[in-house]
Structures are given as structure tokens and as C-alpha cells.
Amino acid sequence: MKKSCPYCGRIHEKGFQCPKRPAFQRKKEVTEITSFRSSANWQKTRNFIVKRDRFLCRICLENGVFTSGDLEVHHITPLAVDFSKRLDADNLITLCPKHHEDAERGAIKASHLRELAGADIPPAPTLRKSSDA
To answer: Is residue 103 part of a domain?
Structure first.
């Protein structure tokens, strides 16, 4: 029986050791943090935060840009620093990938992110249909 090889893309006999296969594959270490990221509590909280932030990146929104779509929830105080804040709404904010990376490397101050996370988003304007009178 033959099967497709994920390393070289060719078809090999089952059991064939492809020379393109890496010699050593490191398994992900299961830690409190990695198991938390797949927990139901985190998924529920993450969904709540994205809804709270109206499915928009808060930094983009502050700059007048409406970025939705590929959004991520950022822990303002990292899990490795204070794991007890992992589900605190004041410690979580919705960001686009670009701003999430900026926040991770410290280009966006944590104090500013906390300020945005605690601030309400103004309601969207209601569009009214004009009447023909």
C-alpha cells in the first residue's frame, strides 16, 4: 500500500522512511498555560471579549479603522507573569495580528491597552431610512 509523504510530497510504500523527514521532532511540552489555551473556560472568555469589543481591533478602532476578521485576544499581563489574571476581562483585549505582535514586543504600552480594555465602545450610529414626503 502506498501513501503520500508529508515531507517530500511524493508517494512511498507504507513504512518507508523518507530521507526528507526531520531526524528529531520535538513534542510540545504540556504546561499549565498550554492546557489552559485549549480549555472551555478560555474559549468562552475569549468569545465574550471579542463580542465585548464588537469584533473589532481596539487599536485600529482608536485610529478610526474598522478591522474585523482575523482577530486575536491578548493578555495584557502575560500568563507567564500572572496566571491568576488569565480570565479577567480587564486584562484582555481584542487585537488584529499586527497590533497583537506590537503589544507582545512592548511597542504598545500595557497601560494604554488596559485603558482601552476598560473603556466602552460607543454604539454604532443607527441608520434611518429617509421618508419621501
So the answer is: yes
Please count the structural domains in the chain. 1
Which residue type sits at 70? D
Distances (CA, A) of 132 to 53, 125, 126, 129: 36, 21, 19, 9
pLDDT band of 44, cuts 50, 70, 90 = very high
Q: Domain of 85?
A: 56-118
**In terms of C-beta density within 10 A (0-12 exposed, 13-18 middle, 19 or more buried), how is residue 4 classed?**
exposed
Domain annotation covers residue 4: no
Look up the pTM and report it. 0.70
Average pLDDT (67-88) is 93
